[in-house]
Prior knowledge:
By secondary structure, this protein is mainly beta. It has a domain at 29-93: Sandwich (Jelly Rolls). The protein is built from no helices and nine strands. The strands form two sheets. A five-stranded antiparallel beta sheet has the order 1-2-9-4-7, with no helix packed on it. A hairpin with a 4-residue loop joins strand 5 and strand 6. It is globular. One of its GO terms (biological process) is regulation of DNA-templated transcription.
Amino acid sequence: xxxxxxxxxxxxxxxxxxxxxxxxxxxxxxxxxxxxxxxxxxxxxxxxxxxxxxxxxxxxxxxxxxxxxxxxxxxxxxxxxxxxxxxxxxxxxxxx
Length: 96
């Protein structure tokens, strides 16, 4: 068992775990900031636990708030824009 803890950041990100098949990142984005369109070679799960984010995928855009979870297949393009100061956990895993 491992216990991972996120730190208080100032609109940045930190990798809590960075292994070949699994990466867990704490992402903190301030209101109005954007993460440009990008993709991952792994399956992705995004869990928002503070704030409000406009999350844009390949086919649609969703406003996500605490309690929402986004899942994506490998190589799916996506972008984010913080509507409010926001904290998210991004889990990337090679499943196969």
